[in-house]
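DATA SHEET
Item: assembly model
Revision: 1
Owner: S.N.
Input lines:
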Amino acid sequence: MKHAALVLLAATALAGCAASGRPQPAPVADTAPEIDRDPYPSTYRAPAGGRVALVGATVLTAAGEEIANGTVLIENGKIAAVGASLAVPEGYRTVDARGKWITPGVIDAHSHLGAWAQPESVEMHNDINELTDPNTAQVWVEHSVWPQDPGFDAAREAGVTTLMILPGSGNLFGGRTVTLKNVPSVTMQGMKFPGAPQGLKIACGENPKRVYGGRGRSPATRMGNVAGYRKAWIDAQDYARRRDKWEKDGRTGDAPKRDLQLETLAGVLKGDILVQNHCYRADEMANMIDISREFGFKIRTFHHANEAYKIAPLLAKEDICVATWASWWGYKMEVFDAIEENAALVHAAGGCAIIHSDDPIVIQRLNQEAAAALSAAWRAGIRISKADAVRWFTANPAKALGIADRVGTLEPGKNADIVLWSHDPFSIYARAEKVWIDGGIVFDRADARYRRHSDFLLGQPGETR
Amino acid sequence: MTRRLAALAALLLATPASAETIAIVDARLMTMTGAGEISRGTIVIRDGRIAALGAGVPVPAGARIIDGRGGVVTPGFVQADSTLGAVEVSQVPTSADRATHSAAISAGFDISLGLNPDSILLPVSRLAGITHAVTTPLYDDQGGRRLQFAGQAAVIDLAQRPQMVTRPRAAMVLEMGEGGAERAGGARGSAIVELRTTLADVRHFAAHRAAYDRGEGRPQTLSRVDLEALVPVAEGRMPLIVKVDRASDIREMIAFAREERLRIIVDGAGEGWRVADEIAAAQVPVILDPLADLPRSFSELGATMDNAARLHAAGVTVVIKTGSGVAHRARELRYGAGNAVAWGLPHDAAVAAITINPARVFGVADRIGSLQAGRVADLVLWNGDPLEPLSQPQAVFVEGVEKPLTARPLELRDRYMPRP
């Protein structure tokens, strides 16, 4: 009943009014209240979808195909058809895409936009690490997101249509992630990807032990890190058991008190929340896999994972995605063995390779970062096509984020999230010319109205450029 | 041929090119001289020097031929504002010699001393076509922003040889703008007054060294080594790298340099495009990161991707860098240049911005940065457009020596790559 009310509200509320007009749960005298699983619901509204035909481009579908002289038909916000030399049915507005390239919208599996917003040198804008305890599974990074971050604009102008925002890596458990659609909005709720699962950010290695060891408390070592994870999962199992028992016993007696931290961890154990694990070294990833077995949960993605190439078959077997870079290395010990071929070797082992950003500049050129990774593959004699490599910044991050049924490829029925590129996206000269989300245009380089939405930049130098 | 044999062959190729004649044939030569681009040219390298180059140059008898296969030859790239040779792992302080917090050594810090030619970062950078770097001191601000100058930069080569310094003490590094304000107590006005005072002290010191050494000089805020290091700056012989981004800071420093007769290089210049004509008129070169398009601070609110193109169009000498104090990610230099092209910088200007322009700005253009007969062979053969990620170098010559296309990350790759 509650759910129906929420859906109704979502259907009528205006974007930007997210915090107002929530229905109050009806007071119930003799039973404990339901836990609202979606207390900060998305108010995102797909734009009115017309019928559009993109005609004549080279299309990388991210479903394995490179289609020359391809046509993409968009209808009601969805991909209606993709193919070579398709006839354009009556009633479609045609976009001449000859000589250009088309890919699905770019998806970044690792971003801090909004939570560490521009101007990033201003400390008040850094809201990604709740460094007050090594376990802050109770925090939700969506409550740090400032939708006016000019970085969202820059990323959209580079073709990024969906992105997952994660808390930082200073804690063992950093908090819950949020997946956003990269649309201009005054509220976070107006960007929230409807129905996308949340993630839990977990961090391995140097960061947590440096932060807390430096304060003379645990974890100060890698073994301290692991003890910290295990204690938390033991507590979570206990919490889940108590709540399950209360449910099974017909909700009689006092409900166990809610604990936001344990609720997140229990959500992982139930499979509702996906584990997004910052972890560089091969040996530490293997330890984390063992921990997941010990406590019965799945790791969805290892982030950064610069040594994934050392255990690529294991990661493929475990069906764990690897979100990494091509070019970043050497800034600390645990990333000393990074190689440009990391993504390619994960891919070649049959795994799920992702090129991610973790950075407001790199997010603007995930296609180029993928090109650097592809180039390294070719240098090594690893045969990977552009049609496959495009998955590294589209279909595979969609899988990591748990939204692959809706976005990530250009297949009929998928959301019409599309980038029209001026050149081959694996060229350094390619720029996003037009970007669609759910069939609605959100960026057009030829039209200044689609640029610089951020209120922060209004009236500032460069605005009149 | 097995990979091991290939590596061995590559090592043999790494022996000095002296006493060998090499001809690179069938390549487009981007000379970075008045000769411009030569399509389908030949370069003859003898004893480590370019003996001849051009479209109709014959291949000498007995020369080892490197088939360019229609690729491109560029001068070796120069990474400005780098810490190559001065760092191994950024967060391991004992592996880094990029900065000092000694109060007595600010301007006096000479980064050309104590560099590491065995750094594994050097061959990694060579694989991106980089043969030289301007290794530039960073500030060590662990005790707060205390020191006025970061120290003196040096031009180095990436040949991994003991004598790796091409030009020591090539420029002095000074942060102004926001950072400079903090160093001087919290305000820009304070930083500019402090700099003026420092220069007066330096000039007084230069004119009264004997008195200073007798303990009779006027009180100085700087140590003797710092004063001595700043004399060539005050006399306009050593360029001063001024790190500023805000348009007003750039304008202010141009005026300051004119009054004080300093040679300055503006580094950063996030809002440089807004004062492009003034920078051009003052003939001040600019070092910039073309990818810095975000308002990262209140000094960079006007940052934009077309900064490089606009400055170039105004006639400014543009040097392209990637990041600040970059070392590990130096290999992304050519991608930065490529992006500048995507945003309007002419392709040849982008290549100039990572070859001949930094060579000129740092006083080594008589040695590197262009392809000319008589010059040491410092060049890269590419299998395509050098600014494209999908292109890779096929041969790299650093200061006359062909270097193998290997590096530790490639050895790691080969250790873990599944065998067919």
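QC remark: The mean pLDDT of chain B is 94.
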